[in-house]
Amino acid sequence: MRNVDYIIILTVGWILAACSSKPTDVNNVDALPEIYPDYVGVTIPVGIAPLNFAMADEAFETIDVEVKGTKGGSIHANGALADFDIDAWHQLLEQNKGATLTFTVCARKDGQWIQYKDFSMDVSADPLEAWGITYRRIPPSYEMYSQMGLYQRDLSNFDETELLQNTRTPNQCVNCHTANRTNPDQYLFHVRGDHGATVIGSEKVRRGEGEKLELLQAKNDSIRGSMVYPYWHPGGRYCAFSTNKTSQMFHTNMKNKRIEVYDSSSDVFVYDTETHTILRDTLIMKKYWAENTPAFSSDGQWLYFTTALRQVYPTDYDQEKYSLCRVSFDEKTGRIGEQVDTLINARETGKSVSWPRPSYDGRYLMYTQTDYGYFTIWHPEADLWLLDLETGETRPMTEVNSDRAESFHNWSANSRWFLFTSRRENGLYTQVYLAAFDRQGKATKPFLLPQRDPKQFYRRLLYSYNTPDFTSRPVDTDASKLAKRINGDERTPTKMAVRN
């Protein structure tokens, strides 16, 4: 053996030994460890990727973690971070379904090992019922679309795959990937730009011959804008949209607010995917009112939406406050009812409602409340609220809210989990959090979307997560073929039906 080879082997061995050193001469402290991400006391589902973490303090050199389940089993991690073996992690969670994991953490700083008080995670007995999540990742950009994309992530590990990046469709914006109750076979998203389109993947389309997707005309002169903020009817034939004339402006004297997004006009309508007909109804398209963010009830019998009296823009932008309303919907005829009910009145609360999302079991409706407006991702006061559809009671979800913006929430298929975005980490970028939701209407402490090395990943990430949702299986798309069609001129025209 050459001397240089021997030196290399010794050096590598020394590095490995240093990275996997075991705790000795431990100093016990009566405090919980400060870890990143903060996973202390969270509730997690069976099948979730390992919740790897590191010490929050950079001065710590090594962390040693032992995890034990109350129903048996244990795993161990040692190194610069607690990087758990994926297979061993899943086996431990499966063994302790409905039970508790106890974490014993030792960490070395300045050559001294410190052992902290144990902390726990609960493993829920309620399944997640999701393969993964979908989302858009977008950089901070105000005038240019820049580089963005739609992605899907396997929640059992750390694999992320592309659905569509806008580098394949130059100078265009891709947004709002929306599935029907987490069904990957029925979804849509919108593309803005010179070759704009509303892309619809539907089971009804798939049963026919030819292409799996339809590309609708992105704009329609009769609705004066694009088809945005979609929400599927559970039956799959209809989809509710709003059409918005959106503007933005920048704050010059607010430290905690950078940009304001508002609509000088907006309306809500229903689209019939079988007849390619836009169903407009003057009852929910009032001249001096801005209807927005529609959502169908879990049984499809109600159409929820928000509405606000239009203001003088941009001077009175902060006087625009949305109420939550609903109107009945007949799936057989595609018609809405004759009376609008107001569930949360902005005149009474003095606040503004946006993004209503009914739970799929029909019991609750989660929404975002803010001081004014509806584009809540830029409002640090934006919080998640919960409406009990049986009692009419509403409350702030203090168990998940922070002092920064929470928004863009969605339910799991069984309504026992939900996800949302938050700027709580640094006030700059929205990140995805998940939380359990019990049958008494209480949520657990949310946990940050797991990553292999979360500290390095989130520090280096210069993108925001946007419009996340669960998906029961991987979305089957070919990004190259889809981009080719979007860049082409083929579009399905739409018809208009106005009902007074």
Secondary structure blueprint with pairings:
Blueprint: H1 3-19, E1 27-28, E2 35-36, E3 43-44, E4 54-55, E5 60-69, E6 74-79, H2 86-95, E7 100-109, E8 112-115, E9 119-123, E10 132-138, E11 149-154, E12 160-165, E13 173-180, E14 183-192, E15 197-201, H3 203-207, E16 213-217, E17 219-220, E18 225-226, E19 228-232, E20 238-250, E21 259-272, E22 277-281, E23 289-296, E24 302-309, E25 323-330, E26 335-344, H4 346-349, E27 352-358, E28 364-370, E29 383-388, E30 394-396, E31 406-411, E32 417-422, E33 431-436, E34 447-448, H5 454-460, E35 464-471, H6 479-487, E36 495-499
Parallel strand pairs: 1-8, 3-9, 22-36
Antiparallel strand pairs: 2-4, 5-6, 5-7, 7-8, 7-9, 10-11, 10-35, 11-12, 13-14, 14-15, 15-16, 17-18, 19-20, 20-21, 21-22, 23-24, 24-25, 25-26, 27-28, 28-29, 29-30, 31-32, 32-33, 33-34
Distance from first to last alpha carbon: 90 Å
Provide mean pLDDT, rounded.
Answer: 90
Number of strand elements: 36
Give the helix proportion (percent range).
Answer: 10-25%
Morphology call? globular
Helices, by number, come to 6
Radius of gyration: 25 Å
- Class based on secondary structure composition and strand pairing: mainly beta
Strand % is: 35-45%
**Largest sheet, if any?**
7 strands, mixed
Poorly predicted residue ranges:
1-19, 205-210
